[in-house]
Amino acid sequence: MVRGPDGSSTRVSLYAKGGALGIGRLTDRGDLTFVPLRRVRTHRNRDKSGLYRWYNDYRLPDTYGGGTVTVRLHTNDEDAARGFNRTENLRPIPPADNDFKALYARRNDAESINRGVVDSLYLGRAHAVGPPGSS
Prior knowledge:
Blueprint: E1 2-3, E2 9-10, E3 14-17, E4 20-26, E5 32-36, E6 38-46, E7 52-59, E8 68-72, H1 77-82, H2 86-89, H3 100-104, H4 107-119
Antiparallel strand pairs: 1-2, 3-4, 4-5, 6-7, 7-8
C-alpha cells in the first residue's frame, strides 16, 4: 500500500520486465504498459540467523506520492509456494539501469581472475599447507 499526495492509500502492483522492476499503467486504449522504476540503492539487512538478505529501494512516480518502495531480491517460502522464482525475474542491477554498463564492464576481469584461481588448483582442490612445523 502506498499513500498518495492527497493522503489516500493505493495498492500498487509491481511487475518485472527484462530484470527491471516497474509498475503497470493503463493507456487510453486500455492496454497495460510497463513503466520502469528508478533504482535508488541496493542494500542488505541481517536476519535473525545472522545471514544477510539483499534489497533494492525504488523511486515511486509523483502520482503515487513519490517516496521509495523497498523490494527484496531473494525468493522466500511464499514465492516458492506460488512457483515464482524472484531471482530469475528481478535483477539487482538490470541492463536498463544507469549503473549497469560500468559494473558489467568489470565482470570479464572478475571472471578471468576466478578462472585463473580455479585453473591453478591441483585436481580441483585448494592449495594446502601441512600442520605447523611440517615441511
